[in-house]
User: Fold this.
Amino acid sequence: MAAPGEKPYRVYRGGRTKGKVPLARRDRESRRAVRSDGRGSGRIVERKPGRRRLWLGWTWRRWTLVVILGMIALFTIWGVAGYLSVSSGVSDANKRLPKSVRPALTPDTGLLLSSPTTILLLGTDHATGKAGVGRSADEHGDSMTLLHTDPGRHRLVYLSIPRDLQTNIPGVGEQKINAAMQFGGPKLAVRTLDALLGKAMPVNHVVIVDFNQFEKLIDAVGGITVNVPENIVSDRFDCPYKTQQRCLQWKGWRFHKGPTHMTGHQALIFSRVRINQLDGSFTDFNRQRDQQLVEQATMSKLSSPSLFFSLPFSGGSLLKPIATDLSTWKLMQLAWVKFRAGETIHCRLGGTSTTDSLGDVVIGSPENIRVIGEVLGQSALQRPEKGNPYAPGCVAGANASLK
Assistant:
């Protein structure tokens, strides 16, 4: 029974409200929430629900942070291991380059990341191997391609040099341009190209590729994709069968037009096709073009971001077929420039095919000056003249064909 003068019910300032009547426990909790200095508002402070605890008592937020930090650490360790592996291979590749070549190169004007540079890609056929027996002293350049980077325009430009292009080789005289390798090695090849192209496009770096070791390299990177310009049925060279009877029944190697994924052996065969039974106009000029396509596809694969994951295991061995002056840091810059490039352009020098005292040669066309301007971005691209396999010109597109 209530004491005298005490009401047997509670009075709320706001009057009667709907809802549950506060229990004694809730009333105690609300009083604890009032500030001890006496200035509290007296209102009930709701407690925030506790965070859900997972394994080891950690919250989702903590686990997410740990996973992110772990991935960053893994990529850092993997990147350092890949860099050290590639650096070892690059060091060996630098040692394979003759010491006389570096003084012939024109220094870069800045970082490859921001400044244009020109790299000479030399494919050689003089190394010993299956296709090199008896030719170890014959140092003709099998293919000559210039890679011109243009970071400001986000472009990569490949300029093909016909191996039979007749030009003046310094200290030698009029010769086919591929003979520069035979007379003076890569140093003379660089000087010959500088004399041919002039000061507008000097050679800054060189990469020498041994085709006889390309097979292992291409297999190591998982194969390459080459945009085959035309359907090809070769003659019966390098028969894949063991018996002579089977080889006589065999028609030759076949390649279909369009993007084609190739193993190392297939790419090597493709780069050595000299006769196309489906095209009577197929010449050594076409073979050189195909070699350059293989070369470019391989270089593209080597500088692709997807190769990053295999670098700690194969970074050093990938560069065995290569001799170059490029450092690891410059190769990394080149890979980034390629990754950022939004446009790939294929150009070629050309002229008129004829026969003289040097044999079958290509006499350079005055339009080659225009092509150099197109490579440097000084004029609009013009396709080669249709029906003329030796016509100079340029086309845009990673899978574009100059045919």
Notes: The chain is about 30% helix and 20% strand.
